[in-house]
Amino acid sequence: MIKRIILTPFQKFVKIESLSGILLFSATLIAMIWANSGFSESYNSLWQYKIGFGSETFQLTKPLILWINDGLMALFFFLIGLEIKRELLIGELNGLRKAMFPLFAAIGGMIVPLCLFLFLNDSPQTAQGWGIPMATDIAFSLAILKLLGDRVPLSLKIFLTAFAIVDDLGAVMVIAIFYSGGVDWLLILYSLIPLLILSFLGIKGIYSKYWTIILGVIIWVLFLNSGIHPTIAGVLVAFTVPIRQKIDMHYFKENLSKIMTGIAKSNNENVPVLSNEQIGYMDDLEDLTDKFTSPLQKLEHRLHGWVAYFIMPIFALANAGVVFGASMELNTSLMLNIGIALFFGKLVGVTLLSWIGVKLKIAVLPEDINFLQISGIAILAGVGFTMSIFIANLAFANNLIFIDSAKVGILIGSIVSGLVGYLVLRLSGGKEKGQ
């Protein structure tokens, strides 16, 4: 029973992320074909089309691609914030010993690619791209694991998810600290007022979706104009959402039993319309389940599909359309450095730090996982797609050649990592017992 309660939500998460990876791949392919077809002009003009609203005192107008990268991606980061908070409080990262193995892997997976990129880099102009190979795309990675079926133990999928979430936290911090410039600290100070209100309500266990939306939008607008990337506002607002339910399990079971008894005594079984008494029971049931469900868990559940099936594919469609051709200008050095740092950096970083953690007896290797499988996962972590492209757009905001070069490098590194990681994992493990 306990195993089902813990594993079933995770298995649903893996299923959603796996399908999201397929959609991401499809959107990427469509973007590249569209951008290199006879309709390339429509591709470029669509994302540069300006949309906005305003008044005499306030104006907010941006190209569509910025609404996606600054607006929709704020919801993506909001979901990341919810996932990080859940993992830290009740998930795979809620205890020091449980967290150490994926934590060591994530640290290695961030630091080694960064150092390798800087070692290979030969130009001060491209040095700011150091954050690009730090990222791991969990949707693509889990989609590849899905192809392996029961050759991959569930604990390996949990390990990938846990260290990818730590990786996301690192990427969020890197974006906030290093890829935000010209900060207007007065606007940040103003943003603390609604953020503190939401934090106070969260500490008290009070949650209102309306107040969260209204104050969240205010925080986002203030961050948008402050110089710190507005997606960071999504993470901060997510941290204020309470995880505790309003009622405990005992109260829930006791009242659920009363409601079910009342419904069972009803004599209205063959009538398609509910009686007033039954409607009352249904309202009580809805109210009870609403109070028993964690606000954080409910939001995460509702947003996951939207982010996985809509926001991430739209982001890929808008950002992956690199134009290839004889006249295409690429910085070959930057392109290769990113591809190499993603593949070899992740392979060495994740594997080496995981091994060190186990050897120092700080971290524990799960019983059904071997280090060849860890190496396969480490290679798979080189699939950096979504977050890597996002960071590339920030790192080289005013240089289209560098952005295109970075995107090609990300695609090369991600494709090679995905293929080699798949082969290593396929050869490293058999089918799980009992399946």
Automatic annotation (TrEMBL):
A GO cellular-component term linked to this record: plasma membrane
Main localization, broad class: membrane
GO MF annotation terms: sodium:proton antiporter activity
Keyword set, alphabetical order: Antiport, Cell membrane, Ion transport, Membrane, Sodium, Sodium transport, Transmembrane, Transmembrane helix, Transport
Keyword Transmembrane applies: yes
Topology class, membrane: Multi-pass membrane protein
Localization in the cell: Cell inner membrane; Cell membrane
Transmembrane residue ranges: 21-39, 64-82, 103-121, 160-179, 185-203, 210-239, 306-327, 334-356, 376-396, 408-425
InterPro entries (alphabetical): Na/H_antiporter_dom_sf, NhaA
Pfam families: Na_H_antiport_1 (PF06965)
A GO BP entry: regulation of pH
Record's catalysed reaction(s): Na(+)(in) + 2 H(+)(out) = Na(+)(out) + 2 H(+)(in)
HAMAP family, A to Z: NhaA
Family as reported in the entry's similarity comment: Belongs to the NhaA Na(+)/H(+) (TC 2.A.33) antiporter family.
Job of this protein: Na(+)/H(+) antiporter that extrudes sodium in exchange for external protons.
Protein name: Na(+)/H(+) antiporter NhaA
